[in-house]
Amino acid sequence: MKPAEPVPSAGRAEVRIVAASPETARQVAEVLRRCFASTEQRSYPAGRHGATRLHFTVDTTHTAEPARSWLASSQPTDGDRAHADEV
């Protein structure tokens, strides 16, 4: 039986991202950092062929600055157009 991992304090979450490339992992981490305050990420190799694993902690009690809600950020801007297969 594996020992239980320590649980982060209330309002915090440990995030682990595993991706085929470092750039993909960084892009996902950037999205989370736009929503929540976070610690500095730690990067580790994840297997063969350049895969990467990122670890960091997000604080859900403090939003990143400037914070935008999902609804506000999903609204189309004047420059956005539907793709041909979306109309």
Topology diagram in text:
Blueprint: E1 12-19, H1 22-35, E2 36-38, E3 42-45, E4 52-63, H2 70-74
Antiparallel strand pairs: 1-4, 2-4, 3-4
Poorly predicted tracts of residues: none
Distance between the termini: 53 Å
Mean pLDDT: 78
Number of strands: 4
- Give helix % range: 10-25%
> Main sheet, how many strands, which sense, barrel?
4 strands, antiparallel
Keywords for this structure?
87 residues; four-stranded antiparallel beta sheet; alpha+beta; single chain
What's this entry about, in short?
By secondary structure, the chain is α+β, with helices and mostly antiparallel strands. The protein contains two helices and four strands, in the order E-H-E-E-E-H. The protein is flat.
What does this protein structure show overall?
The chain is of the alpha+beta class. The chain has helices at 22-35, 70-74; strands at 12-19, 36-38, 42-45, 52-63. A hairpin with a 6-residue loop joins strand 3 and strand 4 (52-63). The relative contact order is 0.21. The mean pLDDT is 78.
